[in-house]
What does this fold into?
Amino acid sequence: MSKRGSMLIALLISLVVVLIVAGGIYFWIHKSTPQPSSGEPPVRAMTVSATTSVEVSSPGTSTAIYTQYTDKDFGFSFWYPSAWTVQTQAPDASDSYQGGTVKKMIIVQIPPTSANEQSANSQIKIDEYYSADMTITFPGDDCPTVTCFNFQFPTRLYFDPSLRTWMIGYPEGQATSKGDTIPAGYTTPANVSDNTMGGLHIINGVVPYDSTGVIPLSAHNFLVISVPLSYDSIGMDAVVKTIMATDPAVATPVSPSEQSSTVQAEAAFYTSGI
It folds into this structure.
């Protein structure tokens, strides 16, 4: 091999060594240097536990303690101010939903000192309802004609497997607040545009003229929720917004930071007024 060829090979080897050393130095510096943050404080993911409590504060409000209620058997949880009381009771005989069975009734008692609750009897009632037929029917009231104002005809919420959507049906028709009527047998897709932070649908309109709504946990498990009459929608209640399924396969929740924001909004809702 010529002298010129030997020098070229030596030069190439030296170049390769320099590149390897430079790459190693760059990797070490990049790994050792703290990376810039996104500007948001780290958020701890909320874990599902019947005894979980956290301190929550929001701008303009005092710090409050919030507790997460969890029913692993029925598969859901929600957050509420720790100063409130939550009781479980046997099913109420007046809750005569058709098509299934009420397994348990949960009463969330709201103190009258809360800014958005002025009644001493304000409460959120949650019925755990199971239906093998994927349906729940709210019975109607006694009324001789379809023209009765604020009269409740039977309404049925059910899941249509062929359409893969929740439907509301009116077996006997319905009177509306405008004075017209919905024909018997009429069905329409349920409005599922409002969701909890757990990605669960909040379905209103199943019981006209009433602050009662339904959150399906599956095709068979429902939460029937009644909130204070001052609300037009159960989705207006801050506790309802925090409901999540314990099974992550049921629905896709919002991000942990959005979950934290939802609970902070709940703190503001009950301390500062609407």
